[in-house]
Every structure is written in C-alpha cells, then in structure tokens.
Amino acid sequence: MSVDEVYAFRPFKLIALLCVFLALCLDVVALLSPAWVTAEHFSLSLWESCSQSHVRQPAEEAAWSCFSTLTSDWQIATLVLLGAGAVATLVAFLVALVSLCWGRKRQHYRIVAVFLFTAVVLQACALVLYPIKFIDGTVLQTYHEFNWGYGLGWGATIFMLGGGILFCLRTDIYDDAMY
Prior knowledge:
five-stranded antiparallel sheet; alpha+beta; single chain
C-alpha cells in the first residue's frame, strides 16, 4: 500500500456478527425467562404457569402453585418454534465466526443470512402465536401484561433480522479504484 492509496475499512460483517451474538444471548434469556405474562396473582412463562391462592388471614402470605405448561399444544408449538429459531441462530453464528476468522469465504455469508432469515420467520411465528392463543384460551379477570421475557424474544428477532441484512450486503464491489 503506497501513500496515494486509501483503504476503506467497512466493518459490516463484524457488526453483523455482533448482532447475531446479541440475538443469541437475548434468545437464550427469553427462553429461560420466568415472566412472559404477568398479572396480579398470575405468572406464565414458556415452561410453567403459576398462580397465587387467596390469603385467608392478613398476616400470612399466599402460596404460589405452579404447573407445567407443556400440556398445551400451542405452548409446545411456541417453544419448538423459538427453540428452532435459537438453533438456527447458533448455527448462523458459528458459521459466521468461522467464515470471518478463516478467510474471505463470501458464499458462507449468504448461508448465514439464509439461516438468520429462517430464524426470523420461526421466531416471528412463535411471537405472534403466543399472545393470540393466550388471549384466546385464557380469561383473566384482572389486568395482565406481556412482560420482559416476551419483549426479549422480539429484541432477539430484530437483531437477527439486522444481522441477516448486514450479511447480505456486498462490500467487495466497492473495493475498486473509486477511492
């Protein structure tokens, strides 16, 4: 490289790898989160549903009773879709990491983008299915809200989409003598 040449460094692939890593971390936390839906005496996660019994005496604390949610078809489907999205994101992250560290294998970036877009579709289906079936099947007599676990699922999906778009960018065509 001489004095007259300018090298333009574009860290799109590195930023994309960071997005995929963040998506993977958010996805794992969302899957393990104990709070997807909460209400005054009710809590629902992907794994269990807990409700608090009514207090008979003011001095004692009401006991929580929990049971598995893996008996409902839609909750199992949501869990499978989120798990498949997390696995696709993990595979995309590993392929991107290997491709970024060992050479310039551009064809692997397209494969990573396909895995990420597949994960986005799986996650979005799960995150749309969950509130629809929850509201359809559960009648709570109190105010309920979708909590931080559900929000982290959407955050992971957005980072997956961003990483997939960044892996689709072709920065090699701009390395000509234009600069």
